[in-house]
Amino acid sequence: FVPYFFYLFRFIFFAGVGVSMNITSTVAIVPHYFDKRKSAGYASLGLGEGIALVSLPYLLKSALDTYGFRLTLLYCSPIAVLSLVGPIVFIPQQQPQESSVEGSSLLQSYFGSLKRLVSPFYLFNSLFWQGGLSGVLVTGFTYLVDVSNVSVALLCYSIMGIAYLVGSLSLVAVLLKVPVNHYISQIVVNSALGAATVIMTFMNAPLWYYVWFAIMGVLYGATISNMTCLSSHLYHAKDVEYSYGFMQVFGGIGATFVPITAAIIKESYGIHTGMYYSGGMLVSAAVTLIIPALIQPKIWLPIKAEQTEAAIENNEAEIDAVSTTSCELKNI
Q1: Residue 15 in contact with residue 81, Cβ under 8 Å?
Q2: CB-count exposure of residue 13 (10 Å: 0-12, 13-18, 19+)
């Protein structure tokens, strides 16, 4: 038990913390290179995960069969070191826009980015959809192994990786052509993921599994890419990395507990109940974004649109003030 506990701790702490810090800091790089097409830059960050989903399942399976668990982990270490290449070659091209909330300390900067009505709903959206999606993937994989074999499960995940790339690239292509409301997109994709999860419980043949994983891959790629864009939609340029960091924290909480409970429910009550539970989490993610939009409709608008409206209101107030002053001077 002790060696397995050590491996578990290693993955949770070292790998988990490292990957999360890597992703969050990568998000902060985008404003340095993208201005007009910033959303497309954020959306493109999700492409790497799709490439990994396509290639790694078979590579890791082959390495595990050939070298065993310990050596496979050792051989995977150089892949993690490749993440150092980006920071080495990173040369800032332009400074991101100044934030409207400037904190005097790092802690104030983090919490200053969340002083909006939508912030708690934004965080719980991440908790529900990352937790629900993790539950779907874990439960779906174990179900495939139970009803078929590991080869079918690996093929399904490779198909999902290809579809993931399609979803991410499609979103990037759309963003290069037309403006997209990422708030509404997140609600739509979360709802579609929940619906697709429920549909999976009615499929009972390998062909349908492939189709279902392809659909999930497209939606998965779209929601991962759109989530970084949603941070840019809701927060100022320099607040994006802080808000995205909070989002990663809540998403990590969901991805830690939901898959475990989904697996327990699946073993106790069957695959249908386990999938319903995970799908319900994904639908709940959509609901968390609908609620604040009903309370304050302006939340649907991107942060730039809100800034423009505020600027117009300020200009009108200044004009009124100047007019009032001029009238007073005339009366004198």
Answers
A1: no
A2: exposed
CA angle centred on 29, ends 112 and 169, rounded to 5°: 110
DSSP string, 103-144: -SSHHHHHHHTT-STTHHHHHHHHHHHHHHHHHHHHHHHHHH
C-alpha to C-alpha distance for 197 and 136, rounded to whole angstroms: 7
Binning pLDDT at 50, 70 and 90, where does residue 55 land? confident
**pTM, full prediction:** 0.74
**Residue 108 and residue 229: Cα distance in Å, rounded?**
23
List, in order, residues 6 or more apart from 261 with CB less than 8 Å away.
Answer: 135, 277
Where residue 290 falls among pLDDT bands split at 50, 70, 90? very high
Which of 222, 76, 84 lies closest to 163, judged by CA? 222
pLDDT average, residue stretch 184-191: 91
Distance CA 272, CA 81 (A): 40
Backbone angles phi and psi of 95, in degrees to 5: -85, 135
Burial label for 176, CB within 10 Å (0-12, 13-18, 19+), is exposed
Q: Name the phi and psi angles at 325, rounded to 5.
A: -65, -40
